[in-house]
Design a protein that fits this description.
Elements lengths: L5 E5 L4 H17 L2 E9 H10 L6 H24 L4 E8 L1 H9 L4 E5 L5 H7 L2 H8 L4 E4 L9 E5 L4 H13 L4 E8 L4 H6 L4 H25 L7 E7 L2 H12 L3 E5 L5 H5 L3 H9 L3 E5 L2
Helix pairs in contact: 1-3, 4-6, 10-12
């Protein structure tokens, strides 16, 4: 049974949010999940509107009614085009990020567009998705692509941390019919210093081959440890810089989804989003699902 039984999609009626809503509806239909569309009206913005229009006490209510009308229209369109079960709509007022975060605690998966209505603001202070990723402990799917009914090719970067098995399980469940690739990218410890120390090139290549073989064995063992779903994964090991190699392999595979753990393995990265995850989330051309251990 899929662990994704309750999906929440946050919408600000932007183009990216519309793509996210369509993806969420396709997932709900494929997984037999419930879908809720949420729109949050900023309480500070409502307050400013009321203060600027003291002679129009109903202006705030009009904004809320309009949001409900738009969200209900979006839900009706999604039901028609995706075949999803009834879609619930919720309009809330408050601090946008906090309201989405609170609502996501009652969901198994939060679906967001990569950018909202204000790209410049995203550039300056980070997207809503990135801000939520810092705080949420729920899986978050950040969408970029015009969605097809099902994912076809999924890439799962693996670093053998506790997040790796969780990411592989999530990939298998959210994309039950897809081709799955588990990729480990390694760098030889102190390789730069080995070159500076004039270690023979053949010896460095031998160490690389040894590290590659060990990583491949570990990857196969990890796939076996997650049960029957692990048999669906094709293992891949590359030497290089992690984020760059992940993005390159995703392009090579024409992946429509990358599933990755939220954090890196260093103590500093545990405080925020892992640096590799942040890079992939920023530069991937496809959807990215970020999961916890």
């Amino acid at each position: 049974m899929s662990p994704f039984r309750k999906l929440l999609c946050a919408s600000d009626f932007s183009e990216d949010a519309s793509l996210a809503a369509r993806r969420a509806a396709f997932l709900a239909a494929a997984l037999g999940a419930e879908l809720t569309l949420l729109h949050v009206v900023s309480e500070p913005s409502l307050r400013a509107l009321r203060e600027s229009l003291p002679g129009s006490p109903g202006a705030g209510a009009m904004i809320l009614d309009d949001a409900r009308r738009l969200l209900d229209g979006q839900a009706a369109a999604l039901r028609e085009t995706s075949g999803a079960a009834p879609v619930t709509t919720v309009v809330q007022t408050g601090q946008v990020t906090e309201e989405i975060l609170s609502a996501s605690e009652r969901a198994d998966l939060l679906v967001l567009g990569a950018h909202g209505q204000n790209p410049l603001r995203d550039m300056l202070i980070g997207t809503t998705a990135e801000r939520l990723l810092r705080k949420s402990k729920r899986p978050i799917l950040v969408t970029r692509m015009d969605p097809a009914p099902r994912y076809r090719r999924v890439l799962v970067p693996v670093d053998f941390s506790a997040h790796s098995a969780a990411a592989m399980r999530a990939a298998a469940r959210i994309a039950p019919d897809a081709q799955l690739t588990a990729l480990h990218v390694f760098e030889l410890p102190f390789e730069g210093k080995l070159w500076l120390a004039n270690i023979a090139e053949d010896e460095i290549h031998r160490l690389r081959s040894q590290a590659r073989a060990e990583a491949l064995r570990a990857l196969i063992d990890l796939a076996a440890s997650i049960g029957p779903d692990g048999e669906r994964f094709t293992p891949a090991v590359e030497h290089g810089q992690a984020a760059r190699s992940i993005l390159a392999r995703a392009r090579e595979l024409d992946a429509d989804l990358i599933v990755i753990g939220k954090h890196g393995r260093s103590k500093f990265e545990e405080l925020l989003i892992g640096s590799v995850t942040r890079h992939v989330l920023s530069d991937a051309r496809c959807d990215v699902l970020v999961v916890h251990a």
